[in-house]
Amino acid sequence: MADPSTYRPAPGSIPDAPGVYKFRDSTARVIYVGKAKSLRSRLNSYFADLAGLHPRTRQMVTTAASVEWTVVGTEVEALQLEYNWIKEFDPRFNVRYRDDKSYPVLAVTLHEEFPRPHVYRGPRKAGVRYFGPYSHAWAIRETLDLLLRVFPARTCSNGVFKRHAQIGRPCLLGYIEKCSAPCVGRVTADEHRQIVDDFCDFLAGRTDVMVRKLEREMSSAAEELEFERAARLRDDLDALRRAMEKQAVVLGDGTDADVVAFAHDELEAAVQVFHVRGGRVRGQRGWVIDKVEEMGVADLVEQFLSQFYGEQVDLAARTEGTDAAGSPVPKEVLVPELPPDAAAITEWLTGLRGSKVSLRVAQRGDKRALAETVTRNATEAFAQHKLRRAGDLTARSAALQELQELLGLDSAPLRIECVDISHIQGSDVVASMAVFEDGLPRKAEYRRFEIKEAASEGDVASIAEVIRRRFARYLKETKADAAPSAVDTETDTAQTEAAAGEPERPGIDPETGRPRKFAYPPNLLVVDGAGPQATAAADVLAELGITDVAVVGLAKRLEEVWPPAEEYPVILPRTSEALYLLQRVRDEAHRFAVRYHRQKRSKRMTSSALDGVPGLGEARKSALLKHFGSVRKLKQASVDEISAVPGVGKRTAETIVSALGNGTSSNGNSNGEGES
After folding, report:
1. Strand partners, 100
2. What are the UVR domain coordinates in residue numbering (predicted)?
3. Which has the closest alpha carbon to 19: 39, 44, 4?
4. Lowest mean pLDDT among 219-228, 366-375, 400-409
5. For residue 331, what are the contacts with CB-CB under 8 A and spacing of at least 6?
6. Which of 169, 213, 358, 525 is deepest in the core (most CB within 10 A)?
7. CATH superfamily to which 395-472+519-596 belongs
């Protein structure tokens, strides 16, 4: 635990001007980024009596080893620089309002020849249009089931689509007219895309246009005495209206707005956002976050707006936009309280959108009622979080403190890495490295290894190889980084860079601008295994001259904790928070290693039959397997069918047929030697 007085800037050296500041730990890694109207006033507040600081602030300043700052000209510049630094350095004490990947959305794959709507969870991709997020996947499926009657787009996976195209029969949805069956040619690609475009227009808010169109068609059919068609259109109208009822009008003036509300206590805060487009609630998001500093609602609003909309605009730029408006920033943002820098925030949001944005507090009418509804949702979500995860932050802190005491560490292990080996009887030997910080998984820093030299020598040798490779990279990257000192300057960013060029950024690769893979060492290294594995890992660290990383092994059978070169393990109580944390770290490493092992084994088993075929590289093998679906089907193909695959000529096709012993001749007729 560092003493903040050891790195406190000299009196009078901090400028009384707006700017952005960074706290770094002992490895020069950025752990917190903030901005201030007055750098002097804000930074001095961090060096007050520790007992009077917010708990998370106290943890941050005692973890830090230095502080530096950059002076800027305006508050808008400070806002932009703060957001850029948070995105670049990903400081662990800063809150990131990223999209919660658990929220389902309705995705439409517009980049495919025959686009399909489907329920989706995960990161956004280019060429796909998204609607939502929704609270529950069943809500999407229910809405989709209603709309397929009117917009019979295909919803099957690519594999199912290809299979039905091959057998020449549509699936059940095609027979009950909830799919236009493009797989069997009932509609052309252009006709199917028009169906999907109408579907997207309806979800994007053009509901009245579609309803009026169906009403006209129904009246026309009735006048022409086509009563069956009129009845079908009537049922389609009912389906549309039921779907519209699920997105009830909440603002009658067709407002496009985001409504934000908070519920919070001293340590945590819950935020809820309702996305209203065309007067209807189109989606909802929610987060529960740890508070790093003492913050009121106005401060929470400022932090949320700057990070959330910056993240959304970056995401939209990568995926070519996700809604009809083309910008994730709405015309109006309704908040419970205006932030301290409301004018700067409004100016920044206007720049992101490209047109005027209104930031205000709802005072009366429907907007005030909706804001109260969002507040009730935030309060309920916060209460559920407290019930579900009572004491979670306290438990993590207790686990780290307990590990420090039981293992005799100098400080709490804020960063824990765990290595696990996975194989089946010595084949396809791989390893994984899971990373936890502050008791939580940091999946972006997980790493996987293919065992090269020690694959045939057992788990102990494999552990040693992984540790040697991991920490050799760490030593190499540490030498590449020059640890920066605190910047005591009153010049702005442009002046600093003009004078000294691009500044050094520890842990960041100067060529790619991305974090180095192994730039930060753990406080505690856990290996999956008992004493021999732990001893092997410790011996490798000693060879490399690394003395500040503690090592233990965690044996699965009795969950014993083995220090290196010890005759007996450390037995932790079964109810111990420290043991629970070690188990979570070990289980994550095991899960990650098994997944990698399965990928390698599956790839080897799939392509092994093609490995010995002359003239077949990885690209051609991938193209063949993608085209035919499996090696078994490839064996049944003729020379003409194989040579039809892009990149495969007739001579290569003949070589494949000869090598695989295909049971068909070049004209596709059976030669009596088919596969049994």
Report:
1. none
2. 208-243
3. 39
4. 219-228
5. 255, 256, 257, 353, 355, 356, 357, 358
6. 525
7. UvrC, RNAse H endonuclease domain (3.30.420.340)
Which token pair is 52? 């009077």
Token representation of residue 96 = 């990131």
- How many Cβ atoms sit within 10 Å of the Cβ of residue 274? 22
The structure's pTM equals 0.59
At residue 359, the pLDDT reads: 92
> CA-CA distance, 14 to 44, in Å (whole number)?
9
Which stretches of 121-172 are assigned E, i.e. beta strand?
Answer: 129-131
The reply to whether 395-472+519-596 shares the fold of 257-388 is yes
Nearest to 620 by CA among 652, 650, 651: 652
Strand order in the sheet with 268-277: 280-290, 268-277, 257-264, 332-334, 358-360
| Extents of the domains making up the chain | 4-89, 105-245, 257-388, 395-472+519-596, 611-660
pLDDT digits 0-9 by tens, 242-261:
665 555 545 656 678 899 99
**Burial letters 48-81, b for 16+ CB under 10 A, else e:** eeeeebebbbbbbbebbbbbbbbbbeebbbbbbb
- In angstroms, the CA 148 to CA 236 distance is 10
In CATH, what is the architecture of 257-388?
2-Layer Sandwich (3.30)
If one looks up domain 4-89 in CATH, what number appears? 3.40.1440.10
